[in-house]
Task: inverse folding
């Protein structure tokens, strides 16, 4: 059997191919930070945050990717197979961080999703973090503050209680629909990263 | 419950903290990863269609009015999973520096010339049998600030999706016999010598086109499914 090709860092120059338009490069962009356009059913939200390293510095050269279900908790993928409310919904977004380390996504809040052994997963978004100095994608999840389904989520239950808060996006009091989710790569309040 | 996707191949990957690669010192988690089951959220993943492609995106020598300087090369190969099955219809994104070792990127300001006819970005999708092909120019080596007199061996960055969230791979393809391998902490962060070899393409005379371009083969192996008790391959 063939053996796996190892992972390597994206390095600092990823923008020329992976997020060209956002940085002013000529190559045509395949993915953007917009996961759901205005016509998509569901509750429209923006998720914003910063990627911060172990020295407390923002990471201006990171890339964040998200993968999520639609507002009904359905994925645009054959392994799900349930019909989607919108054919335009792909469930995937990509955003490079700016000089301030910030990324953002415009999307809809996902619904609950089937979990293992008959459980139900709370609304969540899978997140991949790439950057210079990251040799293999870091995988985390965004959950939503105040969602009653969080209490029974089978994945959150596997996270030490004192670290769960790093996975919870917080609503911005001044801006309805805006959630904040910072990603701390290392150190105090380090974000929980998963191995699946 | 058995995982759908195998974890056995994870051993090939580099650790998050590899101190010789200075960037990992502040960007690697210190807490252990939390082991979780593979749910519908991980067994699904983004799909990208053939209809979204343009021919010049797989030929990095045809994206400008003139031709780029450097050694024209064809890189082709197959994308397979760990079970040996081809991975069809999957997006490959690619980026690289020019023949002089300079990226057309605002933060690359080292004293080597830009090439107005080379942007260094490409994409394609594998065919129904997992095959892909790019035409480009051979990238140069370039200096970087990791340590005194640090130079990256020539490489092309690859980004692939595969069929699920768990098959995502970002890697780098290197060229055979590069004298910089032993000095490069990114290449060396893959600690198993055989696994390092799987990041190196091979020269191929069959792929080489007379009077036109040298040919290289680079097969890529993505994470694959575990064998199941009912799998005919393992009956």
Result:
């Amino acid at each position: 059997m063939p053996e796996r090709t190892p992972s390597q860092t994206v390095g600092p120059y990823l923008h020329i191919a992976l997020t060209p338009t956002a940085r002013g490069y000529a190559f045509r962009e395949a993915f953007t930070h917009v996961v759901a356009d205005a016509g998509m059913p569901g509750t429209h939200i923006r998720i914003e945050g910063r990627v911060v390293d172990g020295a407390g510095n923002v990471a201006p050269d990171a890339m964040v990717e998200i993968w999520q279900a639609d507002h009904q908790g359905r994925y645009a993928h054959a392994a799900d197979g349930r019909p989607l409310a919108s054919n335009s919904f792909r469930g995937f977004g990509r955003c490079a961080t700016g000089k301030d380390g910030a990324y953002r996504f415009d999307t809809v809040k996902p619904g609950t999703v089937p979990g293992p052994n008959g459980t139900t997963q709370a609304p969540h978004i899978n997140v991949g973090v790439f950057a210079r100095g990251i040799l293999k994608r870091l995988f985390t999840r965004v959950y939503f503050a105040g969602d009653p389904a969080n209490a029974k989520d089978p994945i959150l239950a596997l996270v030490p209680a004192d670290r769960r808060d790093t996975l919870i996006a917080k609503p911005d009091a001044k801006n309805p629909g805006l959630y904040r989710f910072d990603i701390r790569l290392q150190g105090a309040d380090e974000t929980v990263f998963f191995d699946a | 419950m058995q995982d759908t996707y195998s974890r056995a191949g994870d051993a090939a990957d580099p650790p998050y903290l590899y101190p010789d690669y200075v960037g990992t010192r502040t960007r690697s988690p210190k807490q252990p990863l939390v082991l979780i089951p593979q749910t519908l959220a991980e067994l699904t993943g983004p799909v990208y269609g053939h209809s979204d492609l343009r021919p010049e995106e797989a030929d990095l020598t045809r994206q400008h009015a003139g031709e780029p300087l450097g050694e024209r090369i064809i890189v082709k190969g197959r994308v397979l999973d760990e079970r040996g099955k081809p991975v069809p219809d999957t997006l490959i994104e690619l980026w690289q520096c020019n023949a002089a070792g300079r990226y057309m990127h605002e933060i690359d300001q080292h004293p080597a010339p830009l090439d107005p006819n080379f942007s260094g970005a490409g994409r394609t999708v594998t065919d129904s049998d997992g095959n892909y092909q790019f035409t480009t120019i051979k990238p140069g080596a370039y200096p970087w600030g990791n340590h005194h007199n640090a130079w990256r061996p020539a490489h092309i960055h690859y980004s692939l999706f595969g069929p699920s969230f768990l098959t995502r791979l970002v890697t780098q393809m290197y060229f055979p016999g590069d004298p910089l391998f032993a000095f490069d902490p990114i290449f060396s962060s893959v600690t198993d010598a055989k696994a390092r070899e799987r990041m190196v393409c091979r020269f191929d005379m069959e792929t080489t086109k007379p009077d036109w371009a040298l040919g290289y083969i680079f097969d890529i192996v993505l994470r694959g499914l575990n064998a199941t008790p009912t799998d005919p391959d393992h009956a």
Summary: Chain B is about 5% helix and 25% strand. The domain at 8-234 of chain B is CATH 2.60.130.10 (Protocatechuate 3,4-Dioxygenase, subunit A). The mean pLDDT of chain B is 95. Chain B touches chain A through 85 residues (CB under 8 Å).
